[in-house]
Amino acid sequence: MKKTVFILGVATLFSMTAFAEDSPGLKTDKAPPPPHKMEDGYRGMEDARSSTIQDVKSMHDGASVSLHGNLVKKESEDSYLLRDKTGEINVVIPLALFDGKSVSPDELVGISGSLDKKQQPAFIRVTHFQKQ
């Protein structure tokens, strides 16, 4: 009797998986809404609030920043000078973030990262880089 109850219990447990959906995860049967119809959610750097270099220089150490500007000069291996209409600031961009793209000084770029004011002059450690 106990064996029968045990076997029925185990059989019921394994049969539950038969009622599960065939493909868990993202369903691709419907198209997402176009970007202009989305009401909330992060849609990338172009929607992030962008500051000016003048604003960034007055922020606290470790602040998350987003800037648009031009890389005008290469200072060292990973260090560049970023310029916008309000000023210039040093940025550290690892080569991997360029993702094989080359950028000239006349091209607009967008960066996101954190402000480091522990060393003078202050600089930005870039975590996201986008060629506009």
Automatic annotation (TrEMBL):
Compositional bias of kind Basic and acidic residues: 36-45
Matching Pfam families: BOF
Annotated keywords: Signal
Signal peptide span: 1-20
Keyword field contains Hydrolase: no
Residue numbers spanned by region Disordered: 23-45
Domain of life where this protein originates: Bacteria
PANTHER family according to UniProt: PERIPLASMIC PROTEIN, PROTEIN YGIW
NCBIfam families: PRK10053.1, stress_OB_fold, YgiW/YdeI family stress tolerance OB fold protein
Protein name in the entry: TIGR00156 family protein
